[in-house]
Specification:
Elements (H helix, E strand, L loop, with lengths): L3 H30 L20 E4 L15 E10 L5 E9 L7 H4 L1 E7 L6 E9 L4 E2 L11 E3 L4 E9 L15 E9 L5
Antiparallel strand pairs: 1-2, 2-8, 3-6, 3-7, 3-9, 4-5, 4-8
């Protein structure tokens, strides 16, 4: 004989099993209804690094003048070319010697002009002043006033004219100087 208390317990257990079975069936049905077809595809990525390459022609001595006297001038032409794959900007600095202490490097004047050819019209004066301090732009990283920009494959002609002014001091007789022009290029993209 089953007591009333045991009968109540039996009913609760039966109801609980029915609810558990319903929950399991519902969960199984839910899991089945969430199934979808899927496919995975891999996509390869290829990267290559560009180049920054500044070409200067001619590559040797630009200007030479022996026996210069006040009023003389001498011209030289440089073609600056972007031989790389990325746009670049460049700057120029000068380093002039003073081996005899006569300061010819301070007396010589330099004009740098952009032209289509050195006999053609002046398109832009890039630098004008003593050869000892000749510079344009800034070789430090980042865009600076005076930096010159060239796209990939582009070039420009710069004409250099060195002059010993008519009023040069006679103490400069027999003086010498050698000036080295240095061109520094850097990328434009990602380099504000």
């Amino acid at each position: 004989m089953i007591g009333a208390h045991d009968a109540l317990r039996q009913r609760r257990r039966t109801v609980a099993l029915i609810w558990l079975a319903a929950a399991v069936l519902a969960a199984g049905g839910l899991a089945m209804s969430l199934a979808v077809f899927a496919r995975q595809t891999a996509v390869d990525q290829t990267f290559s690094v560009g180049t920054i390459s500044l070409g200067v022609a001619p590559a040797g001595t630009l200007i030479t003048f022996a026996g210069m006297v006040p009023g003389n001038e001498v011209d030289g032409v440089l073609t600056i070319q972007n031989d790389g794959t990325g746009d670049l900007r460049y700057a120029m600095t000068a380093d002039a010697t003073d081996p005899d202490g006569k300061h010819l490097r301070d007396a010589l004047q330099l004009e740098v002009e952009r032209r289509t050819g050195c006999s053609g019209p002046v398109l832009e004066v890039v630098y004008s002043g003593p050869i000892a301090t000749a510079a344009f732009g800034n070789p430090a990283a980042g865009g600076d006033p005076g930096d010159r920009t060239l796209g990939s494959g582009a070039s420009e002609v710069l004409c250099f004219r060195a002059t010993l002014p008519v009023g040069a001091d006679s103490l400069l007789q027999g003086a010498t100087t050698t000036t080295t022009l240095t061109f520094v290029a850097e990328q434009v993209s990602g380099n504000p």
